[in-house]
């Protein structure tokens, strides 16, 4: 559905964390979610019912019924629009091949996500990630930790203090021992939501850490504890939810962080490139080198001017420090040593 004046008002007036949660839930399912009850809307947004009503009053509706009436009027205007009717009368057949269908499905998902986006929510996450005193710790679930690792890898190129912290079996909550207000945890959690991540998020919140959540439009229970939430549609023809929009969100986060910390990031990337060039340039000055094909020689181990008692071309079989028991000129019955023999 196209953005309307009410849609834009909901998006632009949300300021606090609680207001952004309410606005995000409304926009993700507009206008359907606007027609639910206050209690249902509050539960979906992980806020209280009075919080929902205060936000609606802020955007000009003293009663919830007035807000719903305005949302219904929005729908009726959209349905009666000649432009919308033209589009509705010209459905297109989806491509027969799964490859094309998938690409078009994901392209549509990106367009929907862009139309429903809450820039204020996105900016709140970037504000936390560019804080110079913060330590950024990223983690995800079974099928989303690869997203956390990707964002961690790229952020670590732009700023210090970035850690990928996978939930290792038996050590799931150990990371929380040092958690505190200086930490920002970025968590990726999509259906089916993992209880370990929820418990971890609750513990992180209790420690005073800040939380950013990437999840789907049904919203992980972690949203209740998060300072900011980015959701993404995950429809896919495969048995697994799509992460195309989530990947695009990561790209946008990295772009925003690099722009906000341009000088800082440029210096850090230059230093990283300098360090990488050391490996490409060969051994460092002063490091030991070995000449190919050169080995220890017997003559090099002898004192200057002193001849070996062994016959030419034959090495002594005795260990260093022990005299040979064989008479001069008689070969030893033991095999020769690989180390240089000491003078007999």
Automatic annotation (TrEMBL):
Residues 288-302, 332-344 have a biased composition (Polar residues). InterPro entries: Homeodomain-like_sf, HTH_RpiR, RpiR-like, RpiR-like_SIS, SIS_dom, SIS_dom_sf, WH-like_DNA-bd_sf. SUPFAM superfamilies: Homeodomain-like, SIS domain. It comes from the Bacteria. CDD domains: SIS_RpiR. GO terms for biological process: carbohydrate derivative metabolic process. The keyword DNA-binding applies. GO terms for molecular function: carbohydrate derivative binding; DNA binding; DNA-binding transcription factor activity. The keyword Transcription regulation applies. Residues 2-78 form the HTH rpiR-type domain. Residues 279-344 are annotated as: Disordered. PROSITE patterns: HTH_RPIR. Keywords: DNA-binding, Transcription, Transcription regulation. This is RpiR family transcriptional regulator.
């Amino acid at each position: 559905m196209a953005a309307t004046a009410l849609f834009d008002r909901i998006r632009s007036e949300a300021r606090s964390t609680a207001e952004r949660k309410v606005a995000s839930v409304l926009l993700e399912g507009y206008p359907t979610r606007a027609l639910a009850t206050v209690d249902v809307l509050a539960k979906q947004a992980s806020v209280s019912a009075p919080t929902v009503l205060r936000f609606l009053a802020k955007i000009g509706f003293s009663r919830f019924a007035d807000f719903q009436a305005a949302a219904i009027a929005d729908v009726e205007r959209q349905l009666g629009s000649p432009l919308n009717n033209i589009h509705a009368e010209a459905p297109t057949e989806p491509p027969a091949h799964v490859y094309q269908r998938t690409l078009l499905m994901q392209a549509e998902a990106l367009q929907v996500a862009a139309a429903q986006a809450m820039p204020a929510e996105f900016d709140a996450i970037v504000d936390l990630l560019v804080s110079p005193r913060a330590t950024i710790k990223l983690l995800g679930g079974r099928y989303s930790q690869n997203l956390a690792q990707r964002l961690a890898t790229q952020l670590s190129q732009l700023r210090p203090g970035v850690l990928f912290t996978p939930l290792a079996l038996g050590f799931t909550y150990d990371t929380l021992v040092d958690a505190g207000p200086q930490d920002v945890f970025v968590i990726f959690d999509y259906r089916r939501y993992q209880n370990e991540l929820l418990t971890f998020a609750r513990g992180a919140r209790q420690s005073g850490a800040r939380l950013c959540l990437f999840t789907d439009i049904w919203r992980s229970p972690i949203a209740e504890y998060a300072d900011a939430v980015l959701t993404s549609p995950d429809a896919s023809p495969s048995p697994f939810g799509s992460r195309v929009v989530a990947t695009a969100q990561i790209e946008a986060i990295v772009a925003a962080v690099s722009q906000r910390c341009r000088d800082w990031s440029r210096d850090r990337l230059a230093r990283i490139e300098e360090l990488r060039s050391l490996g490409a340039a060969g051994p460092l000055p002063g490091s030991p080198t070995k000449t190919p094909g050169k080995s220890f020689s017997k003559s090099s181990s002898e004192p200057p001017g002193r001849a070996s008692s062994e016959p030419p071309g034959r090495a002594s079989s005795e260990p260093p420090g022990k005299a040979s028991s064989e008479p001069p000129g008689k070969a030893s019955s033991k095999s020769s040593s690989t180390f240089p023999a000491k003078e007999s």
